[in-house]
Design goal:
The protein is mostly helical. It has one domain. The protein contains 6 helices and no strands. It is rod-shaped and about 90 Å long. It is a multi-pass membrane protein. It is found in: Cell membrane; Membrane.
Length: 224
């Protein structure tokens, strides 16, 4: 069992930093696992409900059932903009969502793009910390190891003995920093790659939904 009480101040500081990165990373991993799982699951349920329901107002009244899906935010923004255009069209005695005067379909497209950007930002929040952890903690750990080995050799020089009993404890304690750096980095990198993939899938789903929403609006207008 290694006794770290005898390690230098710098190595102890390095270990505290690595432990901080590891603890925060695991907290983010558990939080994002729950968030991304709910987003994917409820998005699938929402799409199924959306295509089975024939009216936008009926879908809008049930959005609370899919509160964790980013698609509900897109639908809500798109539907709100559509209602606003319809109300303006009614005031002008003739509904023309394609009108350039009202902003038309492009206003709905902009609302969907804004909502998509907002949801991507929300989904990617904290994920960059995992990338930072994965890229920096091995080097922080290596720095602690190098510093610890320097102190170990300094101790050897002062004691005048290079026996294994003198060298081994200092070097083994120094190597702990590298080990903890890797322990912090490996799960963070794996989680980062996993979340990036899942978020890309959600982004593609949001883009497809926006396209379908606009197509439905355009087809509806064309029938009028």
């Amino acid at each position: 069992m290694l006794h770290l009480a005898g390690t230098g101040l710098v190595v102890k500081l390095v270990l505290l930093i690595l432990i901080f990165f590891s603890v925060v990373s695991w907290a983010i991993i558990f939080f994002k696992l729950l968030q991304v799982y709910r987003a994917n699951s409820e998005s699938e349920r929402f799409l199924d409900f959306f295509w089975k329901t024939k009216r936008f107002d009926a879908v809008n009244s049930q959005l609370d059932r899919f509160a964790n899906s980013p698609l509900t935010v897109l639908f809500s923004e798109g539907y709100s903009e559509l209602k606003r255009l319809v109300e303006k069209g009614d005031q002008k005695e003739e509904l023309d969502i394609m009108s350039t005067e009202l902003g038309g379909i492009e206003n709905i497209a902009r609302a969907l793009r804004r909502a998509t950007t907002s949801e991507i930002t929300r989904l990617e929040k904290y994920v960059t910390f995992l990338a930072t952890t994965g890229s920096t903690t091995p080097f922080i750990g290596l720095f602690g190891t190098v510093w610890g080995i320097m102190n170990a050799f300094k101790g050897i020089g002062e004691s005048g003995s290079a026996s294994l009993a003198v060298v081994a404890p200092g070097i083994s304690e120094a190597l702990i920093a590298t080990a903890i750096g890797l322990v912090a980095a490996i799960p963070a990198v794996m989680a980062y790659n996993h979340f990036q993939h899942k978020i890309k899938v959600l982004i593609a789903t949001m883009d497809n939904f926006s396209t379908e929403f606009l197509n439905i609006v355009q087809r509806t207008v064309a029938k009028k």
